[in-house]
């Protein structure tokens, strides 16, 4: 057969040549070298035991055939039955060992420790589960044999493989299938077997937490000191992985055991222990973990001021204060934060904090200020605006306006309040009002003159009497007589007063007859008249106005001289007049009284001198005296705006002497005496007491009755005049506003108050002032005329712009607009009116103001018609067959339906017909058919009254 050399066999066996040679030597077949040829028996002896630990089946195949045949044998191995038969067949002798080998195989199923020795085989077992059922009977077969045999030798064999080697090859081969047969039985039992088989490791893992618990118990003891407690915690954390590394990577470990190990690194974050606590049933480990965190929380708390709040910080600080220096620093931070909080949230945070409370109190103290008593008196000048009063009282203007509204006064912040209103308001707010207005009258009041400085002055006479009793005639008669007798050729000027001379003595007559003017001047505070001449017509006697004149004179305390006029008339009865006047206490001297009666005739110039003598006599009785050697003081008797001279006024000097060039103030105006002239048109350089003169030089037209006072300088005169103007404006505005507020509803119903704005430009200041003043006087309750701007010079673009913005009219006197201004005015549509005469301008403005007035409607009667028959017309309604009894009936006019003189309907006609034709109107005495809009209740005998509303332009 084939020869097998040593090295070939060594290769087949996978061993070195030397080892094979050693084995051969042990078998008693020594060889000298590796090329030596071996006998087949020797090869068998060598290969059989040599294949057992590695590839037994291959070794069996080699023994019988070449390697190619081994494969065939391997297939046979897959059928355990045949293999078992074959395994038992070739070796007859070790048949008895086969059951012995099966016995330990059976033990393997019962004893799990044995397969553990060879893991590799355990894998093979798992890979061949199928053969298990068929092998079971095979295993059962040898089982009885095994039962007969003692189990002791079988038990020895598996314990040590070294001991199995010397065993018979048959026995070892029999053991293989035995293990394979039992393997399926082991497979399902593997999990169960593994648990008891590997507990050696798990007890170690479970022991770790048990070992850790004492470690944690140590941490419990360090609760009180947070920072040192952290160090042991860290040490423990490092120790734990060291102890837990071994069990952790092992597979198959129970989860309950694995988690603590896998989560060990987590404690480094400082949060893991908190999460681990719920997984442990022991409360003890929780405390040591939480307490170190308590220290961390304190640090976090220092970084987060908001949730902790000031009080929390204070508590932390108190707790941590005695611990360490670091805690002192940590305590400072919350303290700073606490201060900030006090600043930004003083209200809620300040509760219970002294500092916060103090700050709030300080703020309140600054707000509440109680002014001194002297400061609670508000001094005003006649009037004060709402805003100014609120400012003085230190309150909001809105509060004051609210208070005014409660009083029923709707006011704005610029609303002027008069003294009384301001006093009421201020009282409500605990203030007092004191009127410290510049009392000009007191300032200008005449100082009492020394008796030696007083000189006799002419009497000032006013003539009163009933209508047509001859007042004017008497004045003219006296004057004419005097003129004729005195200065022939003089041109009489009507300046409102004149003086006559008799026997070297002057008498001044006021040329404003009637008690109305007398009383009006009195009402203005002017006491001008010294003597009253009461004119009573001898033929008419005492009349109503005579009585009034007597009463007015008596009220003024002015002596009366009775002039019985018209004695030239045949029917004159002076005695009756004397008798009638007795009832008023005016008793003639001849009748025992003290009243002077002079019978005169103005027409016939009878007893005029006697009258003047009586006047002088009365003046003597009165002892009329004045000091001529001082600044003039008088009364405006009459004033007007002269075309060429501007404002002129007749001044009756009452004391002192007025000279040309004197500065003066008269009412709200001031000026300088440019020129004076008497009633005869003569220029006079000076005017003494009781001398009437016409003065030129006023800045505006004064009112009759204004007090005229000469001033030392223009500045003083201007200041006083301006003050009076301001006072007048405020009082007028207050009066106007009050009125408008009282009638607020009506004003709203009617519309806004209409304003006419003007801009006045002139060549000289005098004319500008005169025009402006005249325009202002045109202001009425319905229309307010405002002079926005008044100045000297040409009309400029600025003026036009102002007019455009204010919707104003520009009035120019002897001036022309600039070229650009004219173009701009045309472009902007500004009305520029140029005048040379002031009166024309005033008239134009008057007309313009009348145009602004709301037209009034007046009903105009048109006619009447009587219903004679009523017809009912389908789709039309009732139609009245009527007869026009008066006037005419107009189709588009308005009609009233009267029934028994009671208006039952007022509206319009829907149709007016004559027979079948529509007509516009039907005249009187004609019949017609009429129907009303939306009204059908027509009855025979009803009256149609036709009328229309006529528009009437408003008049100032
Ligand atoms: N016969 C006669 N007629 C006189 C006399 N005085 C006035 N008259 C006439 O009486 C009328 C009224 O005269 P006036 O001077 O206008 O009287 P008055 O009081 O001024 O009238 P009023 O201005 O309207 O208040 C005139 O027609 C005069 O001519 C007089 O002495 N004798």
UniProtKB/TrEMBL annotation:
Q: Which molecular function terms from Gene Ontology are attached?
A: GTP binding; GTPase activity; translation initiation factor activity
State any GO CC term. Answer: cytosol
| PROSITE patterns named among the record's database cross-references | G_TR_2, IF2
Alphabetic keyword roster:
Cytoplasm, GTP-binding, Initiation factor, Nucleotide-binding, Protein biosynthesis
Compartment(s) where it occurs, according to its Swiss-Prot or TrEMBL record: Cytoplasm
Q: Name one Pfam family in it.
A: IF-2
Entry keyword Oxidoreductase: no
SUPFAM superfamilies (alphabetical): Initiation factor IF2/eIF5b, domain 3 (SSF52156), P-loop containing nucleoside triphosphate hydrolases (SSF52540), Translation proteins (SSF50447)
Which ranges are annotated Basic and acidic residues under compositional bias? 107-120, 256-271, 326-344
Q: Where is this region: G-domain?
A: 459-607
| Entry keyword annotation includes GTP-binding | yes
Domain of life assignment? Bacteria
Region: Disordered, residue numbers: 80-358
What family is this protein classified in?
A: Belongs to the TRAFAC class translation factor GTPase superfamily. Classic translation factor GTPase family. IF-2 subfamily.
Which HAMAP family does this UniProt record tie to the protein?
A: IF_2_B (MF_00100_B)
Q: What does this protein do?
A: One of the essential components for the initiation of protein synthesis. Protects formylmethionyl-tRNA from spontaneous hydrolysis and promotes its binding to the 30S ribosomal subunits. Also involved in the hydrolysis of GTP during the formation of the 70S ribosomal complex.
Q: Which protein, by its recorded name, is this?
A: Translation initiation factor IF-2
Which species is listed as the source? Answer: Geomonas limicola
